[in-house]
Amino acid sequence: MTNIFDSTANVKTELSKQKYIASDEIATIVYLSQKLGKPLLAEGPAGVGKTELAKGIASATGRELIRLQCYEGLDESKALYEWEYSKQLLYTQLLRDKLNDTLGKADTLAGAADQLAKEEDVFFSERFLLKRPLLKAILSDQPTVLLIDEIDRADAEFEAFLLEVLSDFQISVPELGTLSAKHKPFVILTSNNTRELSEALKRRCLYLFIDYPTLQEELAVVRLKVPDLNPKLAGQAVEFVQRLRKADMRKSPSISETLDWANALVALNASNLDKTTLEDTISVLLKHEADLQKAKRQYINPPPPQQPRPRNNNDEFGRFSGN
Amino acid sequence: MPRPYGEHKMESRILQLIAALRASGVRVSLAESAESFSAVDIMGIQDREQFKLSLRATLIKDVKDIPTFEKLFPLFFGTGQPPMMGGNPTDDMTPEEAQMWAEAMKQFAEQMRQRMERLMNGEPLTKSELEALGRMVGLNQADNLNYQNWMAQRMMRALAFPEVREALKELMEQLQQMGMSRDRVEQMREMIQQNMQGMQEQINRFAGERLAENLSERPRGDNIDSLMNRPFQALSDADKKLLQREVKKLTAALRTRIALRQKRMKSGTLDPKTTIRANLKYHGVPMEIHHKDKIKKPKIVVICDISTSMRFCSELMLSFLFALQGQVRKTHAFAFIDHLESISEDFSGANADEAIQSVLWRMPSGHYNTDLGWSLQNFNDGYMDTLNSGTTLIIVGDGRNNYYDPRLDIFSLMTRRASRTIWLNPEPPTLWHGDSDMPKYAPLCDNVLKVGNLRELVNAVDELMTK
Fold first, then answer.
1. Which residues neighbour B411 within 8 Å (Cβ) at sequence distance 6 or greater?
2. Is B295 on the interface with A (CB under 8 A)?
3. Measured between alpha carbons, how far is B403 from B405 in angstroms, rounded to an integer?
């Protein structure tokens, strides 16, 4: 059973049931996109939950999620459809007798060709059409959620080709004619903003920019997804991640990395964010050697201050506790 | 059905916002503006935040434009609430206190007294008063949001705000001397302070709104259009800043165009996977041969004259090349005035503006003479190996050599090594005389393009990358 959102508040509650915490901004734009029947273009740094949003919407509405992962060199035959030649060949082999029967009735060559032409449709029917994600989403009997992931990785040509699908929800197959959607899929495109998307594509979408979450939002996500982590430690961990994000890193830790880290802390049974725990687990957060070194220098083993100052014993941990 | 007045007003307000967005350099298409209306129809305008988001999601399609929107939105759709006023401290005065107040006020001149009473009573300014103030300071001629604070300050000065503030201080002191209690005076001072802040905010908001409205009424694009056609030499520093912003937008468009138009090389190694796949329909007989697809990206060596006369042209050219790194296999950049320096390192990693600044800082233009001949000699000594059959050589310069040896021997060697040589010169051929060596260099080049303004430069870059 598929259902639709009937208000922005409804979007929020339904998504939170799917363990996705949507901000007012996200809820409003998702609702709007459903109401207008427009694709939603979600942009933002990697790992802030753009793909999760699509999954959340799919399960909240009870629709099937069809995902098209983009990459350089993605073309129509992989995104749209392809004729299944091997199956066609196999069928002709197996149906040879039947074909002989049909064609045998004709007296002349021209007659046989006519007979064959009548049966042509058998071989170019949906039976032999290998549906790729886009066609699948359009022909599905049930309404679906179509996720076109990381569109910025695909070539500019592919973008141009998406335009027909996104504005009219139809696909032209030369042998079959134009196939229109039975149900308009809910389309979500994501982009990591590695290149500028074309104006034409942007024009057809609603735009949602998802940035790194605020401290409160991120804490809520961690509490929801990793309930085993004790609240105090969760607070410290999130605060530390937020601080790392402010520093100039080659790759800032994303929410998904925060969650990985939180899980790691649970697995290690950590009770406090002390120096050894940090040193052991920080590689979960930072994936570049240079970033790791920098974080170790700045946050874990900060250089001693120029003027030696009296230090109390809690200083080491106090740096990471919220206040 | 005729729409109620309120709604109509809202529509024209949204259109004004869109016009202001366009005037600030955000691209908003007709389809998008139509869509913003349907979004607003759905979400309604009761909830201000949702109203804002419905406009933003439909109009703004780029993170870079979000700050512009956030700045303009409150100016067109203010909260509409009157500013915070502190209240009227004279309301609850005892008769003696009121007596003292009246006594103290007598000491001030009539006009000042009106203003002060105004502040004491906590009345906000009326619309027509604000209009009059705005006219007084020339608010209606300005359409740059950066002037908001300045305009507001001028309006406050027109209200004699600083003097009133001083006078109030005096008044308070007098009241205290007359024997009003300290707490009471302090309380009054605070209230008046709040009234003043309220008025200040009101003025500030009014200035912002008026500027934004003016911005939305400004004829669109004319400004930039004429700048694009203006010769480089005639550009002021302010113009250059404007143009730099335009260049960013142009490169985005160029990049898409170039990516689409770049030639695909149809030679190269066989791609067995796609070949087998494509030939399934021929029963596995390889009728269509597929090769590994390779995009033919040019390799560029660019030599820029960054002497004073050529600086801006070179700067723009470099920022184009930098922005187009993705469409190019490798760029070697050199700059010269009297000698040649490699500036490729400046362009690795950093952003374009910074890179160009650092180059210009390292090679400041001085009173020494441009010497292309010697610079070519430098190139010959150190960098000749950057040129090979896949390279496009670009020279940006006016070819004026101050009667030094043009070193045509080296130049012709360079053109023979490179697959293509293109010279970008701001001067048309009719001006190639005097100390210009262009007539000697030109026959050796594959193409000499006149690049005297930004539009010509954009065309030249386009031609360079797609042919």
1. B376, B441, B444
2. no
3. 7
Closest-CA distance of chain B to residue A266, Å: 36
B58 closest CB neighbour out of A8, A24, A206: A206
Q: What is the per-residue pLDDT for B77?
A: 84
Local mean pLDDT, 10-residue blocks, chain A (323 residues): 78 89 90 91 89 92 92 83 84 82 79 79 81 89 92 83 84 84 90 81 91 90 88 89 83 89 89 83 85 81 59 46 40
Boundary-marking domain end, from A65, A97, A129: A129
Per the structure block, which two tokens stand in for B212? Answer: 């934004």
Size of interface A-B (CB pairs under 8 A): 71
Q: Cβ of B27 under 8 Å from any chain A Cβ? A: yes
Q: How many CA atoms lie within 13 A of B341 on its CB side?
A: 12
What's the gap in Å between the CA of A30 and the closest CA on chain B?
10
| Contact A6/B at CB under 8 A | no
Q: Which fold has domain B242-262+297-466?
A: Rossmann fold (3.40.50)
Q: What are the tokens at B253?
A: 């468009």
Say if residue A227 is in the same domain as residue A292. yes
Is any Cβ of chain A less than 8 angstroms from the Cβ of B42? yes
Please check whether residues A141 and A43 belong to one and the same domain. Answer: yes
- State the complex-level ipTM: 0.76
The C-alpha of B40 sits at a distance from chain A's nearest C-alpha, in angstroms, of: 9
Q: Is residue A58 located within the same domain as residue A139?
A: yes
CB atoms within 10 A of CB B57: 28
